[in-house]
Amino acid sequence: MLRTLLLVGLGGFLGSVSRFLVGQGLHRYFDTIFPIGTMTVNIVGSFIIGVVYALAERDNLVSPEMRMFLAVGFCGGFTTFSSFAFDNLNLLKDSGFLYLSVYVAGSVFLGLLAVYFGTQIHKLF
């Protein structure tokens, strides 16, 4: 159990640091109030978790420990649905319904699409 906790913790640390770096990088590149960093990490994280679970189910290509490290740890630290909710509130207050609608619909639809593609990517190999 301690090994699993350490793997999840290390994955969470790496995911959180990655989220921060991606968010900062995108916000420097795109000068906008739109929360593109949060939306991007949610979509990428959804894709990664889809790939991890697909590979774990297919001939056990990902061990249970690696699945915990990647899906629970890294993706749990990388994706930001708490930040997503906060960004939604700020968009609603500051920018109105249009940005809020684009952000919510884009994050949910593209996230679902990314999970689907992630679960299908193993068919390419």
TrEMBL record:
Gene (name only): fluC
Name of a matching Pfam family: CRCB
Membrane topology annotation: Multi-pass membrane protein
GO terms of molecular function: fluoride channel activity; metal ion binding
Species classification: Bacteria, Pseudomonadati, Bacteroidota, Bacteroidia, Marinilabiliales
Localization (cell): Cell membrane
Name of this protein: Fluoride-specific ion channel FluC
InterPro entries in UniProt: FluC (IPR003691)
Main location: membrane
GO biological process per UniProt: cellular detoxification of fluoride
Catalytic activity line of the entry: fluoride(in) = fluoride(out)
Functional description taken from the UniProt entry: Fluoride-specific ion channel. Important for reducing fluoride concentration in the cell, thus reducing its toxicity.
GO cellular component: plasma membrane
Binding positions (Na(+)): 76, 79
Species in which this protein is naturally found: Labilibaculum filiforme
